[in-house]
């Protein structure tokens, strides 16, 4: 599974609990996008979570 190359956010595992309290394993996946961004002065394709995109931690290549 992909990780955000800016903040390192990845998959988190836990337990889903139903209304009748039956428990099963599940995974919370981050919203990762592959975007062209400016890295060290050149454009490069990177995996970035949408929170980093929205907060302006990544400048997109034109």
What does this structure look like?
This protein has 62 residues and is mainly beta. Helix content is 10%, strand content 45%. It has one helix spanning 50-55; strands at residues 12-17, 23-28, 32-39, 42-49. The chain has a two-stranded antiparallel ribbon. It has a two-stranded antiparallel ribbon with strand order 3-4. A hairpin with a 5-residue loop joins strand 1 and strand 2. The longest helix has 6 residues, at 50-55. The radius of gyration is 16 Å and the shape is elongated. The two termini are 27 Å apart. The model has no long low-confidence stretch (mean pLDDT 94).
Largest sheet: 2 strands, antiparallel
Task: Please report the number of helical segments.
Answer: 1
Instruction: Report the helical percentage.
Output: under 10%
Q: What structural class should be given to the helix and strand makeup? A: mainly beta
Shape descriptor reads elongated
H-E order: EEEEH
Radius of gyration: 16 Å
Strand content bin: over 45%
Terminal residue distance: 27 Å
DSSP strand count? 4
Low-confidence stretches: none
Average residue-wise pLDDT? 94
User: What topology, given as strand order, has the largest sheet?
Assistant: 1-2
């Amino acid at each position: 599974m992909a990780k955000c190359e800016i903040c390192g956010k990845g998959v988190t595992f836990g337990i889903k609990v139903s209304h009748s309290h039956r428990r099963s394993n599940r995974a919370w996946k981050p919203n990762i996008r592959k975007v062209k961004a400016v890295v060290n002065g050149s454009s490069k394709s990177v995996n970035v979570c949408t929170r980093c995109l929205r907060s302006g931690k990544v400048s997109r290549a034109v």
